[in-house]
Write a structure and sequence with these properties.
Layout: H1 6-12, H2 17-38, H3 43-55, H4 65-79, H5 87-105, H6 115-134, H7 136-141, H8 157-162, H9 168-186, H10 194-220, H11 222-225, H12 234-259
């Protein structure tokens, strides 16, 4: 996790010990599945790896067959990559590769209410939109464009790899939608135990900050911003942790106030 996602590594430090090791195992499984596809030598090898995963992906024991199948279906969308024709297709992809991972996390962090599931999915989808926005050029170099064709017409992967700044208008739309999903996702903190809520809030706030930094840099100099991998520096992470604490307090307090019985004056 330290090598693959320092943002998640930071957030995991706030998890209670009983949740931390299973979260590491889930991250390791998701990363291993993804690497088997991405590191395959060519499309045929990737298709063979996918067939093996569909027969036995070896998910952690608490992951339901339905959630495992959705995740593998997301990997299939990568193997058979065709550009999304609509935002609905992009949302389906985001759910399968990231939203469903939020659902897999729920049993590990004490999300016992069914109402927490939609929030977990929304947060995962928001993070995936951030990934897509950040990796515009890297994905284009692999022949992949995740931006719906209607958002960026008449631009193919080859052109986008050379001139990733062309994606700025579409990225602004993506990150606005991501902010909406971050808001929906973080409202789910109300149904989590305090330490787990803080860990999830840190992950969400750090990732949301990646998108905000990317957009700020792109508005100043898009040619530069889309040719580098946006990361949140140490001070930015500290600010995100402070924001996460405030988010947990607001959501928890707001939830309690809404749940308090209303006294009717006699």
């Amino acid at each position: 996790m330290q090598q693959g996602s320092r943002s998640f590594a930071l957030a995991s430090l706030f998890l209670p010990p009983k949740s931390r090791d299973p979260a590491y195992r889930l991250y390791q499984w998701c990363r291993r599945c993804d690497d088997r596809i991405d590191e395959a030598r060519g499309p045929e090898a990737a298709a063979r790896e996918l067939e093996l995963l569909e027969r036995d992906a070896g998910a952690p024991t608490w992951v339901s067959p339905e959630h495992q199948a959705e995740f593998v279906a997301g990997l299939r969308m990568d193997v058979q990559h065709t550009r999304p024709a609509s935002f609905a297709e992009l949302e389906l992809y985001c759910f399968r590769v990231a939203g469903v991972v939020g659902l897999m996390m729920c049993p590990l962090i004490g999300a016992k209410s069914e109402r927490a599931l939609a929030h977990a999915s929304a947060l995962g989808k928001a993070m995936q939109l951030t990934n897509i926005a950040r990796d515009i050029q890297a994905d284009a170099r692999l022949g992949r464009i995740y931006l719906p064709s209607g958002m960026l017409p008449e631009v193919d992967a080859e052109l986008l790899a050379r001139e990733p700044e062309r994606a700025l208008p579409a990225v602004r739309v993506l990150l606005a939608q991501a902010d909406h999903w971050y808001h929906e996702g973080l409202l789910g903190l109300a149904w989590l135990p305090l330490r787990a809520a803080l860990a999830i809030a840190v992950a969400g706030c750090v990732y949301q900050r990646i998108g905000h930094q990317l957009l700020e840099a792109a508005l100043r100099d898009p040619a530069y911003a889309f040719r580098r991998r946006t990361v949140v520096p140490g001070l930015g992470k500290l600010r995100a942790v402070v924001a996460a604490v405030g988010c947990v307090l607001r959501v928890k307090l707001g939830h309690r106030l809404r749940a308090r019985p209303v006294e009717i004056a006699s």
